[in-house]
Amino acid sequence: MIRNRDRLLGSDEREPTRSLALDCVEAGIRAADPYRVVSEAVEVRDGVLTVAGESYDLGDYEEVVVLGGGKAAVGTAAALEAALGDRIDRGAVVTDDPESRSDADAPALDRVTVRAGDHPVPSQRGVAATRRVLDLADAADESTLVLAVVTGGASALLPAPAGDLSLADLQATTEALLASGATIGDLNAVRKHCSALKGGRLAERTSPATVVGLAVSDVVGDDLGTVASGPLSPDDSTFADARRVLARYDVDPPAAIRDRLDRGARGEVSETPTAGDPAFERVSVHVVASATTALDAVAEVARERGFDPLLVSSRIRGEAREAAKTHAAIAEEMPDTGQPVDPPAVVLSGGETTVTVRGDGDGGPNLEFALAWALDIDADPDADLALASVDTDGEDGGTGVAGALVGPETVVEAGAAPAGKRRLSAETARDALADSDSLGALADADSAIRTGPTGTNVNDLRVLVVGETSGSE
Fold this sequence. Notes:
Elements lengths: L4 H4 L6 H17 L2 H8 E4 L2 E4 L2 E4 L5 E7 L3 H12 L5 E6 L17 E4 L7 H16 L4 E8 L2 H4 L9 H14 L3 H9 L8 H6 L3 E7 L22 H10 L6 H11 L17 E7 L1 H14 L3 E12 H18 L7 E10 L10 H12 L8 E7 L11 E4 L4 E2 L11 E2 H9 L3 H7 L3 E2 L10 E7 L7
Parallel strand pairs: 4-5, 4-7, 5-6, 7-8, 8-9, 10-11, 14-15
Antiparallel strand pairs: 1-2, 2-3, 11-17, 12-13, 12-17, 13-16
């Protein structure tokens, strides 16, 4: 899975530690493979479909339709086809990599069409692909069973401009909010009120069909109103909330966006549906994979190798460079005091950090987390430590790399000149952070992790390996 593994590993005594960090990353991503997890959650026996414990008699429906999208859409749809075969009448899903097959056993799709969109900024081809999804939703009636694919990344991959809004309006607003460091909840509050699909609108479009959603969660806490901007879930945000988000992050949107939000706040545009709305009476959504899925697999690998696993949290959030300081402090504390766990140990965390763009470089939350950790860590450069921080979809912040593998030797202070690969001066690291160019610095140090699209998305995964010989300066 990690394409540049050999370049990431050195020939010194730390190679086993670095190798374990990469093994843990791979195990976490593979555990969240949508084909695998959906195959375990879905079963068809004697004409009855069971999804995560809920049963549906296929004889009660005249048509079975698959629709939706996201980074994990292909694997999810493939598992549904493997289970139901020709019981699926038609379908369409949208993803950023239509050829993605993270699980070698996942079959090519036959009943469901895969269409391409773009992430993290929506595109025209995404709009065209989403129209097909909405056509299927609009055609559903009370005799239809809709199997809805709701996975991380669908907020951008399924753009459906509401009312008179244009794609350009959505693009400009999305780019500005991403650059501002807005949280996913705040970003989605705006998205939901500018979309004909998000914030429960897809549930409205499919009603009165029976809808079974399968969600691969990429959000902290697995809030179904946030995953993919909650197309099948009640929305408790309002047009007024969306306006406050823009003000909070000092984002000046296109006039059409501002006009729509203003009219909505005045009650001239209908709000997104809330809990108790009839649109949700025949809708159920099941989370089949999340950050916990990946973290559990990492912990198992650690135990197998004789390292005690310690989960910090599956809900780490906030500025990436600030969150990195806590992980640096833990790495320093463990060898000195045995707290919060005695080495050798693997400290792991998930969640979703953000980056407030300060310059014109290239980077993402996991790259910035890794670079900030390497700059902040107060440990001997020869300490037996390694940190891998990746986005499980294989693309951190739209950079084309998954994240980075770093150690206490990655950044050296003045007077200890960089020598060999995997070395950066502290000045270079600080300049890169100031210019939001964590990728540039880490790529030069041969520290960027390259996986390509993984076909899943359960957000950030961080693995800190602390060996027995680690020690602070």
